């Protein structure tokens, strides 16, 4: 039987053959899983259609004993997993693609590249089926038939795609490979003679790997902000655990501590199976590292415990659990600040940057996420505060009032829909202080609305 063979013909050859419906999504997920597994050889892994992979092994082959040893190891391991595969290593992606799909594969030296390519079908140049058929009608069935021909007539008759495919296969034209994952800033791995399963062993090994990683970070004057622990299981499955830090890290214990919290969070999803045979620690994001010294009492600054707390809580419960606030250039109160995950907040820079827009006026300690409607009574028209108001079904009598403070709309954002707001600080008989605003102005045909926006301490 062969690929592309009709079902009736296949059943005639082998009547007991099993037939299953095609599932492109499952096939894609399987190819992604194999690509994850191939990360053990190189971080530059790209998908090639629905049934192939490109691996850029530049600078990696010597780690496995050479190109031939590396290729044999890949093919043998995949065969043991139940896959029938073929691969080739050459100086260009085009030639590797052609030799693995239309030839015998293997390691192809640069001096033998043209000889190997000449014996292959013109379909190995990755050109359209109509062009292949047209070439075959003229007797041009092998790449060797094209190489000996003048290039200009070929381009006029069949287009530039034929020459482009030929040049890419011969290595005359560069063909970049786009990795499916971003390349890590730094990476350290440890291959194990005996697979490990327990979380304690994983964390201990991660701490040891982090020590090697920290020396590389120190040499570059950097600290890691986002780390990735990659666990390669014996049967080929790969687990990726990502942990972030609120400030650049180099300390191996703190890096391992991040993954201790993450492992507690993903405990049920991490199936060790027969164990992990390879661990890798990546630095996905980094920042310049500013070294600090403890005080004379041996205590760290107040920023470090806060950063540790943010890191532990975010690693255990998720990045969005703790929120920090940052100023924005706007005089509209709800737009002047915005919340973002505290994990990405620079702990050491609070107070170093002043708000983009300052008013010099007192603002409530708590702003409501969205202004709520208020029913105002006996307001002094046109610009005075109300004498009483109802908010959340509770009636309040105003004892003292201060205002108004007028805030104009941002016409470049709100356009004609925006209206001026007059803010009042209202103190009620119970002692509570509220921040209330009137939107719009009284007129013969318009009655403004009142809203509760904040509560003072």
Automatic annotation (TrEMBL):
Coiled coil: none annotated. It comes from the Bacteria. Transmembrane segments: none annotated. The lineage of its organism: Bacteria, Pseudomonadati, Pseudomonadota, Alphaproteobacteria, Hyphomicrobiales. Keywords: DNA damage. The keyword Transferase does not apply. This is Protein ImuB. One of its GO terms (biological process) is DNA repair. It comes from Pseudorhizobium flavum.
């Amino acid at each position: 039987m062969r690929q592309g063979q009709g079902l009736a013909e296949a059943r005639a050859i082998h009547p007991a053959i099993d037939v299953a419906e095609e599932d492109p999504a499952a096939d894609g997920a399987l190819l992604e899983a194999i690509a994850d597994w191939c990360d053990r050889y190189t971080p530059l892994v790209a998908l090639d259609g629905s049934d192939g992979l490109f691996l850029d092994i530049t600078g990696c082959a010597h780690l496995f004993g050479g190109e031939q040893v590396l290729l044999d190891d890949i093919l043998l391991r995949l065969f043991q997993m139940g896959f029938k595969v073929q691969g080739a290593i050459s100086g260009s992606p085009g030639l590797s693609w052609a030799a693995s799909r239309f030839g015998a594969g293997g390691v192809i030296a640069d001096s033998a590249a043209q000889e190997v390519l000449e014996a292959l079908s013109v379909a190995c140049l990755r050109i359209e089926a109509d062009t292949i058929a047209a070439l075959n009608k003229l007797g041009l069935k092998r790449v060797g038939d094209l190489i000996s021909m003048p290039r200009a007539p070929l381009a006029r008759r069949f287009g530039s795609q034929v020459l482009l495919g030929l040049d890419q296969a011969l290595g005359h034209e560069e063909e970049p490979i786009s990795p499916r994952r971003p390349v890590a800033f730094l990476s350290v791995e440890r291959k194990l003679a005996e697979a490990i399963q327990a979380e304690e062993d994983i964390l201990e090994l991660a701490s040891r790997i982090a020590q090697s990683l920290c020396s590389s970070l120190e040499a570059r004057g950097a600290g890691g902000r986002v780390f990735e622990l990659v666990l390669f299981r014996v049967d080929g499955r790969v687990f990726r655990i990502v942990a972030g830090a609120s400030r650049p890290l180099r300390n191996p214990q703190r890096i391992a501590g991040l993954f201790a919290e993450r492992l507690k969070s993903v405990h049920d999803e991490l199936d060790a199976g027969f164990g992990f045979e390879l661990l890798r620690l990546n630095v996905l994001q980094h920042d310049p590292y500013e070294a600090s010294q403890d005080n004379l009492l041996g205590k760290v600054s107040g920023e470090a415990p806060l950063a540790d707390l943010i890191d532990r809580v975010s690693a255990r419960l998720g990045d969005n659990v703790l929120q920090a606030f940052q100023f924005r250039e706007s005089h509209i109160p709800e737009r002047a600040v915005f919340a973002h995950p505290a994990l990405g907040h620079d702990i050491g820079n609070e107070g170093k940057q002043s708000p983009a827009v300052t008013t010099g006026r007192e603002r409530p300690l708590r702003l409501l996420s969205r202004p709520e409607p208020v029913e105002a009574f006996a307001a002094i028209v046109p610009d005075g505060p109300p004498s009483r108001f109802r908010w959340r079904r509770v009636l309040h009598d105003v004892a003292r009032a201060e205002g108004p403070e007028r805030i104009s709309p941002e016409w470049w954002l709100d356009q004609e829909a925006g209206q001026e707001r007059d803010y009042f600080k209202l103190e009620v008989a119970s002692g509570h202080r509220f921040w209330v605003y009137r939107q719009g102005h009284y007129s013969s045909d318009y009655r403004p609305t009142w809203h509760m926006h904040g509560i003072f301490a």
